[in-house]
Specification:
The structure holds two protein chains of two kinds. By secondary structure, chain A is α+β, with helices and mostly antiparallel strands. Chain A contains nine helices and seven strands. The N and C termini of chain A lie far apart (about 55 Å). In chain B, α2 runs parallel beside α11 and α3 crosses α4. In chain B, about 35% of the residues lie in helices and about 15% in strands. In chain B, β7 and β8 form a beta hairpin. Classes of the chains: A alpha+beta, B alpha+beta.
Chain lengths: ~260, ~625
């Protein structure tokens, strides 16, 4: 196949960017989208031009590093797949493909198609964990977890932290990402001691990073390569409301006994 | 080169506990005065960063990805071993130890492997406390699966994403320490050299991949957890950015490299579709439970599989190994697939694949049963190849998957450079010549959570607390050398891309130092690799500059190191004139073509000492002593 690419090129975070057209000749339908870009880049290098910078690592859909908006859709046209799992047979000869980076103020462009997602790390650092030290844990079977509860935790825990949810949202909200972690840990008994502190701390950091608010549009769920449902956001909001209520009321409604001395 | 493994005295089962008591300690109030550099944030690196941060050390953590959560451990689909005996089927620490030593074909250290089996039980407990959502039974207990031919059910799993969940657990614990100020994360940094001052590892030089600047970091100890070197073969199941540079640069600074020729080749990968291929995708080998492997009997038979009658098919594994059939071990299955392809009977456009046929199983069990078992794998296969494995056989081919070799370490995980510790796949210690399924995740976490906190304290307690300025000449010299090398690559401005050199090296290694090796082939590789390296330094083309984000430059540096390291792989494979585990020397086989060990001459770890660019490295041996198990020869005939 012969294709035409329109690619966002931007030298650095401060530099202005623009769309640049590249031919992609002799594309095999068996190539993955990223392999097609590899081949285009090989041609650019041989011509002495600066190759297109883009992130990728595992190339099997689990590391969350690849992050391209293809024809306006984060990770491209396939459902439940990252762009590294997208194959060129999805396109037809002569087609023009538009390739852009994630677009969100909280994900500034580093170069070309590479963005800075360190905001996600800071959100996790704010509270996305159980505070447990190596060495002190009781036997793994000492607390029973019903099978469906473990499965529910796993459903949420699958998030790969790619940021497509943010890129797809017109508000650039990271609610789906945060809610996946909040709900993963809220679904297991080991996550209960810090349940409300966690949701407060993570949402506070979310706001500090400049992500927008969730207005329940659902684009995030549609593009999520792991198909994490927005029901997680509703559940997170419920926990957040309980966490923000004054003590006696919260106690009456849900039995929150944690004291919040931090944040 | 001092290769004293420092194995503690006493009976095998008591060595680790005795050692824990005998190791020196660092007072809790003093720990923050020690800075520990950890390179890599996979299972071993992230676990170490979390555990050492929890203890109160000052930890600096580095990764090449944009976030520590993306290290390649995340892609491990499988399962993790632990000797819990929750299944009541006779498992024990001793049995896990024995299986691991035997699986490694008696080329690992008894004491290390026993310790690994001992701490395996603590790993599961800790991960559960972190919130890792392991699969459960209806009653709420942890579920176990049997795996990889083990006779007991000792593996724990999170659907097909066990590595992901274990890594996220470690990452979250590490980020908790970031919040508490004990761990600092430096992402998008690539370690390009080690700084050794006054005989000790004291720091690293990294390239900030965003700005291109070289940065120096100083610490009292350096922990390398940078994974394996499977990408030396160009195509592997590794992530595209996984590389040998950090480990190889340490080797050049004096760290012995052990058993570089020990690589694991996985038989059930999706074959390559063309020159554009950037990586290979693994499919679970559980597929071999219900699939039958075959190729046409005649060479160059280009008919569609359905048009080839039963009598003209060669089910070569069933024919050659009637008792094990399609379930022979990974290396045997891989080698036989290569043999039939070399014989011109491979299938697919490239002729480099064999059929894995489910039609008999579908007929016997029904399509639904097969879909229930393998639905996700069939879906993945169809997505990548556009072929429907319910209707026509899958095509599979072996691929490099894991590397057992690595930097030599003693029982304390310390390399031959004092202060440089090596964890996880980057070291050589626990898997011998062949890694047992479900043991990679276990080893990474064992090293990080439970071994290094004890052994690094022992090291730190014995050295001065004084800091070293990054203005010290040791940093200046190394940093200048790194910069000069980057500038040199940019100046060549030749005609071939780094990828072309990498692909060519991969072809040499795959052909001559892959599944099946012989003296003539290895000598050919040893002649061709230096030539290719020379061409690289004359003709490579790296666009752009060093002072900004330049992915071509990053890649070129890694390829340059593969071009030196590839030679070491071939040299090691040539030196080991026996077959063992994943290393098959054609000269050393039984009459029925099985791998034949030569314990009299090769019961040792082969350790290589760097002697200078283009010079033959010095060869050393660490003899392996078996006091608790008796090496046996395996047979599948």
């Amino acid at each position: 196949m012969n294709l035409k690419l329109l690619v966002w090129r931007q030298k650095g975070p401060q530099a202005p960017g623009r769309m640049v057209e590249y031919p992609a000749p002799d594309v095999s339908p068996d190539m993955s989208f990223l392999e097609m870009l590899d081949v285009v880049n090989e041609g650019l290098i041989r011509k002495g031009e600066d190759p297109i910078a883009f992130d990728s690592d595992c190339r099997e859909g689990i590391c969350g590093m690849c992050s391209l908006v293809v024809n306006g859709v984060p990770h491209g046209p396939d459902r439940a797949a990252t762009v590294c799992q997208l194959h060129m047979r999805r396109f037809h000869d002569g087609e023009t493909i538009v390739v852009e980076p994630w677009r969100a103020a909280a994900f500034p462009v580093v170069k070309d198609l590479i963005v800075d997602r360190s905001a996600f790390d800071r959100i996790v650092a704010a509270g996305g964990y159980n505070t447990v030290k190596a060495g002190g844990a009781p036997d793994g079977n000492s607390i029973l977890i019903p099978k469906d509860q473990a499965e529910q935790a796993m459903d949420a825990a699958q998030c790969i932290g790619c940021g497509a949810c943010v890129a797809a949202c017109k508000n650039a909200s990271a609610a789906l990402f945060v809610s996946a972690k909040v709900q993963h840990l809220a679904s297991v008994p080991q996550g209960q001691p810090e349940r409300y502190r966690r949701v407060r701390a993570m949402i506070a950091q979310l706001d500090r990073e400049g992500f927008g608010s969730c207005s329940n549009e659902g684009e995030c769920e549609a593009v999520c390569p792991k198909q994490i449902p927005i029901a997680n956001i509703a559940a997170m909001n419920r926990d957040y409301v309980r966490a923000m209520m004054p003590g006696p009321l919260a106690l009456a409604l849900g039995g929150i006994t944690e004291a919040f001395e931090d944040d | 080169m001092n290769l004293d493994p420092h194995i503690p005295s006493g009976p095998l089962a008591e060595k680790w506990h005795r050692h824990q008591f005998e190791c020196k300690l660092v007072n809790p109030a003093n720990r923050r005065r020690y800075t520990i550099i950890i390179v890599g944030t996979g299972l071993a690196g992230a676990a170490a960063a979390a555990a050492l941060g929890e203890l109160g050390y000052n930890v600096l953590s580095f990764c090449i990805q944009d976030s520590p959560r993306r290290a390649h451990s995340i892609a491990a689909q499988g399962v993790i071993n632990a000797a819990k005996n929750y299944s009541n089927d006779g498992d024990s620490i001793w049995r896990l130890f024995y299986d691991t030593i035997k699986g490694g074909d008696y080329r690992a250290r008894e004491a290390n492997v026993h310790r690994l089996a001992q701490v395996s039980v603590d790993i599961i407990d800790h991960c559960v406390a972190q919130g890792v959502p392991f699969a459960r039974e209806y009653g709420g207990l942890l579920d176990n699966r049997s795996f990889g031919g083990a006779q007991v059910s000792r593996t724990f799993y999170c659907r097909g994403q066990t590595g992901q969940q274990l890594l996220l657990g470690a990452y979250q614990s590490m980020m908790c320490q970031v919040n508490r100020g004990t761990v600092k994360v430096f992402s998008r940094r690539e370690m390009l050299d080690l700084v050794v001052a006054e005989g000790r590892a004291r720091g690293i030089v990294v390239r900030n991949l965003t700005t291109g600047e070289l940065e120096c970091y100083e610490g009292h100890a350096v922990l390398l957890a940078t994974g394996g070197y499977g990408n030396a073969w160009y195509l592997s199941t590794n992530a595209v950015n996984s590389n040998v540079t950090a480990a190889y640069r340490c080797h050049r600074r004096g760290a012995g490299f052990a058993n570089p020729c020990f690589a694991q080749i996985h038989p059930t990968c999706i074959p390559m579709s063309g020159d554009h291929q950037s990586k290979l995708t693994l499919m679970s080998e559980s597929l071999r439970n219900d699939g039958r492997v075959w190729v046409p009997k005649t060479q160059g038979d280009r008919r569609k599989p359905a048009e080839i009658p039963e009598a003209e098919r060669d089910y070569f594994l069933e024919r050659k190994y009637p008792s094990f059939g399609n379930l022979v071990p990974r290396d045997v299955a891989s080698r036989n697939a290569k043999e039939v392809c070399d014989d011109g009977r491979g299938v697919g456009d490239s002729g480099l694949s064999v059929y894995l046929d489910f039609s008999d199983s579908i007929q016997r069990l029904g399509r639904n049963a097969i879909e229930e078992k393998y639905g996700n794998l069939f879906h993945m296969y169809q997505k990548i190849t556009d072929e429907n494995p319910y209707e026509s056989p899958m095509r599979i081919y072996p691929a490099i998957h894991y590397t057992m070799g690595g930097l030599w370490v003693d029982y304390n995980l310390m390399s031959t450079i004092p202060g440089l510790h090596v964890l996880g796949e980057a070291n050589f210690s626990d898997h011998g010549a062949n890694r047992l399924g479900a043991s990679a995740l276990m080893q990474g976490l064992a090293d990080g959570y439970f071994v290094i906190p004890t052994t690094v304290a022992h090291y730190l307690a014995g050295i001065p607390q004084a800091r070293l300025s990054t203005d010290h000449e040791a940093f200046r010299d190394v940093s200048a050398a790194v910069q000069a090398r980057l500038d040199r690559m940019l100046r060549i401005s030749g005609s071939r891309t780094p990828r072309q050199f990498h692909r060519e090296l991969g072809r040499i290694l795959w052909d001559q130092a892959g599944m099946s090796r012989n003296e003539a082939g290895l000598k050919d590789a040893l002649a061709r690799i230096p030539k290719l390296r020379e061409e690289f330094w004359q003709d490579v083309r790296v666009p752009g500059e060093a002072n900004n984000l330049n992915q071509s430059l990053e890649y070129a540096g890694r390829v340059a190191d593969y071009l030196e390291f590839g030679e070491l792989i071939a040299r090691d494979a040539l030196e080991r004139r026996e077959s063992c585990g994943g290393h098959f020397r054609e000269e050393s086989q039984t009459p029925d073509n099985e791998a034949m060990r030569d314990d009299a001459h090769f019961q040792h770890a082969a350790v290589w000492e760097y002697t200078g660019e283009g010079k033959t490295p010095n060869f050393h041996k660490e003899p392996l002593v078996f006091e608790n198990v008796t090496p046996t020869q395996r047979s599948y005939a």
